[in-house]
Write a structure and sequence with these properties.
By secondary structure, this protein is of the alpha/beta class. The chain folds into two domains: 6-206, Spore Coat Polysaccharide Biosynthesis Protein SpsA, Chain A (Alpha-Beta Complex), CATH 3.90.550.10; 216-295, no CATH class. It has eleven helices and nine strands. The protein has helices spanning 19-27, 47-57, 82-92, 96-99, 118-128, 166-171, 181-191, 216-229, 234-244, 252-266, 277-295, and strands at residues 6-12, 35-40, 61-65, 104-107, 112-114, 132-143, 146-149, 163-165, 195-206. The longest helix is centred in the C-terminal third of the chain and has 19 residues, at 277-295. 38% of the residues are buried.
Length: 304
């Protein structure tokens, strides 16, 4: 098996309630990362003290802080891409010669606790498939006493726990600093001939429900805007809205999603401008809708 070297970067802001679980989960990995860089982005709770204490205990953990005012104040940090900006800040603090030694570069959120075999299982998938460029595990969230997997397309890797090969990361230009970054990277990776996939054999516990940090409905509005930015077509958006409508609060979630998409369209929010991107996205969506309808015995869907 090839020798792997893992760099994991975790942007954090006010994660005092969760970061120790995240650290313990990494420390107990059957296959620990060589370097874990935690980037504190202006925390005003106990996060700085906790991560400094943990870094003194864990030899693979390192801490940096963004400069004061690095991320502009916002009631929606996801919309202003605070996490990818902090991720890139941390990445650029590393010496390029040191960075070149890593075979895989990953982003892990400060509220995601990995099961013990997470990286061992995921690296096994990279070994089995040399075309895999972006991989990740399945995210579980707590509902009552149970941890249940969240719904996601198999080719989508959640932004909370992405792992890139160095070659793929370079080909796509790294992480984009804008809303929708975790869809842009996957499409551009597939455009470059890489595969993207989530694997049920690698599990992670998300200690905060997806998109809930700033309110559920606001999260669904943001999601709709992101999909406008990503050039999602109207047929695909309608199907997605029906699926989102099944989330809590039911029906209102789907309406919020459509509102976010429509508002972004009305405001002419800038979309991804990469040559061939739009046609590639629409072709993928047309193919998936047609496959779904064929499985259901319905006629093929008209053009994307």
């Amino acid at each position: 098996m090839p020798e792997h070297r893992l760099l994991i970067i975790t942007p954090v802001r006010n994660e005092a309630a969760h970061i120790e679980r995240v650290a313990r989960g990494l420390a107990e990995q059957a296959r620990r990362p060589e370097h874990w860089l935690v980037v504190d982005d202006g925390s005003d709770d106990e996060t700085p003290q906790i991560i400094d204490r943990l870094a003194a205990e864990l030899d693979f953990m390192h801490v940096v802080s963004t400069p004061p005012g690095f991320t502009a104040p916002s009631n929606d940090r996801l919309k202003v891409a605070a996490a990818p900006r902090a991720f890139n800040y941390g990445l650029h603090t590393l010496d390029p010669r040191e960075l070149s030694l890593f075979t895989h570069i990953g982003k892990l959120d400060g509220d995601v606790e990995l099961r013990r075999d997470y990286f061992a299982a995921l690296l096994g998938e990279f070994d089995r498939n040399p075309r895999l460029g972006i991989g990740g595990g399945v995210v579980l969230e707590q509902h009552g006493e149970e941890w249940l997997p969240t719904s996601s397309a198999p080719e989508h890797v959640r932004g909370a726990l992405k792992l890139y090969t160095r070659e793929c990361f370079a080909a796509i230009g790294g992480v984009w600093e804008r809303l929708g970054w975790d869809g842009i990277d996957e499409v551009t990776a597939r455009m470059h001939g890489f595969q993207t996939r989530s694997f049920a054999g690698a599990e992670a516990l998300h200690h905060r429900h997806t998109g809930s940090a700033d309110g559920r409905l606001r999260g669904h509005v943001r999601w709709g805007e992101a999909h406008w930015i990503l050039h999602h077509g109207l047929p695909w958006t309608a199907l997605r809205a029906a699926k989102v409508a099944r989330l809590e609060p039911r029906v209102a979630s789907g309406a919020a999603y459509l509102y976010g998409y429509a508002r972004a369209a009305a405001r002419r929010v800038p979309r991804v401008e990469v040559e061939g991107y739009r046609s590639f996205v629409r072709a993928e969506q047309h193919r998936r809708i047609s496959q779904r309808l064929r499985r259901q015995g319905a006629p093929s869907f008209p053009g994307g």
